[in-house]
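We recall that each integer encodes one residue's backbone shape. We quote one record:
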Amino acid sequence: MKIIISGIGEVGSHLASLLVEKGHEIVLIDYQSESVASLEEHLDARIVIGSATSATLLKEAGIDQADLFLALTSDDEVNLVACSLAKALGAKEVVARYHAPARKDHQVISYSRHFGIDYLVSPERLAASTLAREIRSPLTPVIDQFARGSIEVAQITLDGNSDLLGIPLNELTLPARVRVGIIQRGEEIQIPSAREVLKAGDRIILVGSPQGLTEAVRKFEGTMRLQKQRIVLYGAEDIGTALIENFTSHDIEMKVIEPKRERCEWISEHYPWVQVIEGDAIHSRLMIEENVMEADVFIAATRDDENNVMACLQAAKLGIRPCLLVIHRPDYAGIMADIGDILGVNQTVSPRLVTGHELLRFVTEEPYMVLWEMPNKKAQIIRIRLQAEDSPLYRKLVRELKWPSGTMLLGIERSDNTTVPSAEDRFHAHDSLLLLTRLESRDALIDLFRPAF
């Protein structure tokens, strides 16, 4: 594939290295020549100096032949304009990086639809979603997430004491955004019908929203509502704020420690259920005074790696487990991954790495993207985009389609949001469909969309 990347920062350079190793043709665009000097020595990629907001420069880079264009600079406006131009000049698929605070604007207007962008990715929101998954993991056995963290996959095994044994799935009262996607019974893998009856020993794959999955798992396991987790978060800027948005006062009790007064005031105003403490978590005295040792989870998510490490060490010393750490610098991330357990850090999250993992999903020559698959590869969750209004699904109702056996519609991505559709929902041009399919049913499923490709 020919892939053009605009912006050679931590995310862009990391991704470029991975893609070159995989044998793709890479073109890098950056307006700062010093940013690319070191890359030229060890990276087999063409480098163009300038701004991707220039149509002339994009044509020079060969944008009309690009299978994928990635705008990954630190400037949201540059990324949006560059992607809009790239799409208009012939790039097959375009992806723009944006920062977490811009999300509220996206709720007012669909940036992706307005600018013709196929996908928007926020390193801060991806990192926050990864942290949220780790926080919920004692309650919900999540094994993967996608759609910007709004859809998760969980796995449970029914024991002989479950109250749900022998009950057809269509008689279960599950949260609105949760599906029983797969039942594994011995070696048999099935995407169940509504009349399927659960049996002891069934391994069940649940797919749905994070909050809905937590409720559904408790129902399947027969547990009562558990006591709220007590969370202490150090740092309330981009990643910290995005993390808060993953929860509500019904889910957790949260204390936020933030050094900057203006951020403290902002968090108190927008999230009144959060207790805000002005101070610095690298000081043990503050941690003790605020009874941080009573927390169930500690997260250090400031923009300062050294402070994050020191705060986690203080929390670990006070006996808090788990301790979750955000690391921005690539050299620090590697070190902490190696020695984190020794220092008492249970999980290290790198925005650069989680974003790279997300973007690699776009590197495919197939008309679909694989979001998740079972270890034995017998079933997958895939994403298919309806490219134009001549799609055979355009304006059809969900109930009007006859899906192939062994497939299931899980969600629709539209206007930067992901929803679980009802039978009366209609498909629109440029919708992205999230579909669960058995491997042997995938080709029949893809055939439904063939005229759109």
